[in-house]
Design goal:
65% of the residues lie in helices and 0% in strands. By secondary structure, it is mainly alpha-helical. Among the domains are: 131 residues, Serine Threonine Protein Phosphatase 5, Tetratricopeptide repeat (Alpha Horseshoe), CATH 1.25.40; 95 residues; 54 residues. Helix 10 packs antiparallel against helix 11, helix 17 runs antiparallel to helix 18 and helix 29 runs antiparallel to helix 30.
Length: 680
């Protein structure tokens, strides 16, 4: 049977090729530089973990007790307690015997086995303590019989646990003596220049060196994550001096990151990061290194070089996460401030419909750029992508607003139409569609919404047609005078959607009152709106206005005036609404042909809202009342007041027509009212 201490046997186990991993496994950029590089993990590769664990096992379990050692010695007693897993007694004994000045036997292996046992028991802190004592013991004259291989294995096992315990300086100090001091420098530009010479104090095999480098790489990663930049720099620089061809990219980049996080304005950081990019352009972290180099150049004030580096990054690695991150840093900027390389990257991706990496913000930026540069294919692809990626509606709103601000309203309208008119062949998220509808409503593009509403099947459920969208469709039909279609939508909202929003219920009550065939149903609608109004004074006033209109429809003018007078007398009611109520009181008198009372009511409107639109309406109706009474001069004065004070209103045209008729002695009789009873 092969002796377990036979180095050939050990190499047979450890002789497998170590894995090549990304810097993400051994470099963890700090928050300070998270914008520069990979967001990696501090965990070592699984296979490497197994190798490191094997080191500890071989250092402890494959090294037997010395032949002829007294069974009564301290080492034997400690081994016995360790084998029994009596940790309390083992720790007590170990601390006692290591402090004895007259100790006359080598405790290296016994202490190492205790440390390993404590490690397996989850007592990492104590394990670190006794690994260090084992290392110390291996350097005493009593351990002169140990081979270099024995001492190296103990140090490797100890350093691995120290890293696990986040005691990085101790781990580095443990490995330093076994690493060659005359290895190639970290600035070497040729990987083959790394020397294979070993330490003058220890005979270090290539396998030992590989394992030591992996431990150092892990130590560097842990140091970066904790913000211990000097420790990281030390660990990576030593690892770089001893790394093999597979380990060198990780060590080189780790050393560069460690330099960068210590000082972003360091020319050394720029040189090292650029060196990594030049030597390993095919490495998966080359784009991250290029981005980090660009950031360091910017910190040094070399903006032109920084921009050139970012342009190179976008051109050489257009599909990398680093490229995407660079583009996203420009989101929210004015197109004039965006580098041409970023614009080119976006348009190229959009034209090819390669938009998997585009989030809503990037898509919004792309739409603005495509609109500015008239890239129709890119614009079309981006608009379709925005439709399916904007799950909140915020980016759709921002895009439309930005296009409108940039005086590109035609593009904004085209985008809105595309989002509002949803079809199975052109899907859209409910949020994006709603945002487009809200924009159209805010900008009074009612015709756009009305056309979309006409193409909808009201009886067919559509998951992208939210309650807010249906309300805007109904409002658009109302605003464009399509009263019957609007009536169907408002009823649908109230009865099918069971809406409880006051704005919906008041509109439904209004259309039912004005265009419905059942006054009792209108009364029910008004009552529903009244309940939804709660204690809101303005909302209550609106329901009273509808109650008065329903009373007028039933020819109950006295009741209508009584309700309207409540609105007029309310000091909490808005001036415009009070003026409107007072005007409507005049209308009730006019409909009863009591023109003198109507004129008195109209005159009171101006006292409530001097410059409001209802003043113009009251002048027009007062003029008609004077005409009915044969008082042409007073009627002309009323119409003239409209032309002089309210020339930009819709009432000016009617006033001009009446004046012309009076001047030509036209006996045409004025109608009862040229305006609807309720105007909203």
């Amino acid at each position: 049977m092969r002796h377990p201490r036979d180095l050939g046997y050990l190499q047979g186990i450890l002789g497998q090729n170590l894995p090549v991993v990304s810097v993400r496994a051994v470099v963890t950029p700090t928050a300070r530089l998270s914008r520069l590089g990979s967001s990696g993990s501090s965990k070592m590769p699984t296979r490497t973990n197994r190798i490191l664990s094997a080191v500890a096992i071989f250092a402890l379990l494959l090294i037997p007790a010395r032949e002829g050692r007294s069974a009564e010695g301290d080492a034997a007693k400690l081994d016995q307690l360790t084998s029994q897993k009596n940790w309390e007694a083992s720790v007590k004994l170990a601390r006692s015997i290591t402090n004895e000045p007259a100790q006359n036997e080598d405790l290296t292996f016994a202490l190492a086995r205790l440390a390993r046992g404590l490690q397996n028991a989850g007592k990492v802190q104590e394990s670190t303590e006794f690994y260090q004592l084992a290392v110390n013991a291996s350097e005493t004259p009593l351990a002169s019989g140990l081979s270099d291989s024995d001492k190296v294995l103990v140090r490797l096992a100890a350093s691995e646990v120290m890293v696990q315990n986040q005691n990085i300086p101790q781990a580095i100090a443990t490995l330093k003596p076994i690493m060659s001091p005359d290895s190639a420098s970290s600035d070497s530009s040729n990987p083959s220049e790394s020397t294979t010479s070993t330490s003058t104090a220890f005979k270090l095999t290539e396998q030992h060196k590989k394992i030591a480098v992996w431990v150092l790489l892990r130590a560097g990663s842990a140091s970066l994550s904790r913000g211990s930049y000097l420790d990281a720099s030390t660990a990576y620089s030593i690892a770089l001096s001893h790394s093999d061809q597979k380990q060198r990219p990780l060590a080189l980049l780790g050393d560069a990151w460690a330099t960068a996080v210590q000082n972003e304005r360091s020319s050394d950081a720029v040189r090292k990061l650029a060196n990594f990019v030049d030597q390993y352009p095919d490495h998966k972290d080359a784009p991250n290194a290029a981005r980090g180099c660009a950031q360091c150049l910017k910190q040094l004030g070399r903006d032109t070089d920084s921009t050139a580096m970012l342009s190179d990054l976008l051109n050489r690695w257009p599909d990398s996460e680093a490229a995407i991150a660079v583009v996203r840093t420009n989101c929210g900027l004015s197109p004039a401030l965006i580098p041409s390389s970023v614009k080119h990257w976006i348009i190229a991706k959009a034209s090819a419909n390669d938009l998997a990496s585009f989030d809503a913000s990037t898509t919004m930026l792309g739409l603005v750029i495509a609109s500015e540069t008239s890239e129709l294919t890119a614009w079309s692809n981006l608009s379709e992508h925005l439709a399916v990626t904007d799950t909140t509606g915020q980016k759709t709103s921002e895009t439309l607003r930005q296009l409108q601000t940039a005086k590109r309203e035609s593009d904004a309208e085209q985008l809105a139409v595309k989002l509002i008119s949803s079809t199975s062949a052109r899907p859209v998220t409910p949020a994006a569609r709603e945002a487009a509808c809200r924009w159209a409503g805010r900008t009074s593009r009612w015709s756009m919404l009305a056309i979309a509403a006409e193409s909808e099947e009201l009886s067919t459920a559509d998951p992208t047609r939210t309650l807010a969208i249906e309300r805007l469709f109904a409002e658009a039909l109302t605003q464009t005078g399509q009263t019957q279609q609007a009536y169907a939508w408002w009823v649908h909202l109230a009865d099918v959607r069971s809406a409880e929003d006051f704005r919906i219920l008041i509109r439904c009550a209004e259309t039912e009152t004005a265009f419905g065939n059942d006054p009792d149903k209108a009364e029910e609608r008004i009552e529903s709106a009244r309940k939804a109004a709660g204690d809101n004074v303005a909302s209550i006033a609106l329901t009273k206005m509808l109650e008065s209109e329903l009373a007028i429809r039933r020819s109950n003018f006295d009741k209508a005036r009584s309700i309207l007078e409540q609105v007029v007398r309310s000091a909490e009611t808005a001036a415009e609404l009070r003026a409107r109520a007072q005007w409507l009181i005049g209308e009730t008198w006019y409909m009863q042909r009591r023109h003198k009372d109507a004129i008195e009511a109209y005159r009171k409107v101006e006292a409530m809202d001097t410059t409001g639109i209802w003043v113009a309406a009251s002048y027009l109706q007062a003029g008609k009342s004077f005409e009915q009474m044969g008082r042409v001069k007073e009627a002309t004065l009323c119409y003239g007041a409209i032309l002089s004070r309210f020339a930009d209103t819709s009432y000016a045209s009617s006033a001009s027509t009446r004046i012309a008729a009076l001047a030509s002695n036209n006996n045409s009789s004025p109608t009862s009212s040229s305006q609807p009873t309720i105007r909203r």
